[in-house]
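Re: that chain you flagged

S.,

Sorry for the slow reply, it's been a week of failed gels. I finally had a moment to sit down with the sequence you sent. For the record, here it is as I used it:
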Amino acid sequence: MTHLLSTSRVVFFNPLALAAALMLGAAGPLHAQDDTRRMEAALARSLLTLDAIDSTSRDNGFVSLLTDDALFYIDPATQAVVPLTAASYDFVDDTTLDIVLRDDVLFHDGSTMTADDVVYTFSAYIDPDSELRRAHTYRRWISSVEKLDDLTVRMHLAQPDPMVLQYLAVDGKTVKAGTYGEAGARDWKAQATGIVGNGPYRVVSFEPGQELVLERFADYRAGSPKGMPEVGQIRFRVIPDYSTQAAEIISGNLDWANDVPTDIAEQAASFSEDVNFMSAPSMRIGYIILDAKGRTGEDAPTTDVKVRQALSEAIDRDLIAQQLVGGSAKAALTPCLPIQFGCAQDVPTHGYNPDHARALLKEAGYEDGFDLEVWSSRAGTKEILEAVVSMWRDVGVRANLRFVESSALTKARDEGQLAAYFDNNGSQGLADVNALLPNQFIDTSPNDFHGDPAVYDLLGKLTSTLDPQARSQIARETVALITDEVYWIPLYEFSANFLLSPRIDYPQADDGMQRLFLTTWKN
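Prediction finished late last night. Pasting the structure tokens below so you have them in one place:
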């Protein structure tokens, strides 16, 4: 595949933006004499609300980790779930969970969190009239919540679910009772521009789409698994252009930027010693979904497992991960990530073997190839998928890339026009295959392009089995089946790229979650 390497890489770094930022910073960093030691952070996407439950933005997720404490917390070192605002818990039976709360959890207005707040919060989330964008996720696994005493709540689950504690770690934040009003007269935008959280940072000011300023909460409790943050203030500024972010880091006006394209991050770090480029694993996998179900026609080539296997074996994933994605990206051969519980890596896979791919196509009756379009709407994937198309052409498939807006791809997908399309998933940062496979492969998923009853049966067992050992075996069978049948072509594990100023130490866990409250000053 040397012909791919001869193609010029797209360079995104903007020297004009760099020069402008350097001029602004010529007199020294804006925070050089700031006694409050405020950390300056960049967001590439506009933050439009402070309510993480009313947003699907990943940025809202990590900002909420600063302002809100959930009932539980995922330890970044071990990925174990530990109580956070909860003190202890007990599964009374498979669908009944009792949670005892800590008695020292304060909201930012000084009031103490009690069972009334928790019952109010989750009752609002599962309200059938809820307009919160992520409320439907709660209704899938909670049927009701009740107060047992001032510090104890009982959750009644919709069905046995091995992921309940993980869900309560990611989505278990508690609002003050009355925040959204009462049933029948709720104000679902009540937390859009101002919140009273209970996390390590409180909101000082918020200008939607522009900036957010947070300040360390002075009364945050000792003994929290999150620890007491060292950084006194954090200001997030919306800077959509990554080159400008890099330039601001170089000029000393910015301390932290994430999701920076590898090209820009590498160039910025080589340009100045005042920039640290950190690349870490990301709990996100990119893949191509193939029409094994026959949505595009009963005789579509992709309904033949040998064709799907050939398409998989034609792809040099190592080249894509190392030279096109870059950073800490890795080749992916299974439909999940090695860090995830149940994601077996010792199953038979269909890795790079172009000669065998040609043989498989011949066996399937496609020695002369066939026409195939792969669709994508995901930013940053064009060069990668052009490489995939080139590799498919090398084995005889007349492949082309169609790059479209997301609405066009969704419409074409739902109308059965797609034989192959690119997608990615981050599993909400949860290191468990249950956070990925069931949502994608169940028969009600819009991404169900397989129609395999055996997969549905395994997923039903996977989502209802509570015993870890039994669940691990079911997960292995599920991963092996999906991999062998090539219902997905896994491509690569994403790289989490950060540009950091020399002032800070920022630890990044392998689950891809940004825990900015763990940042410390270097000097």
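What I noticed first: DSSP finds 16 helices and 19 strands in the chain.

Talk soon,
D.
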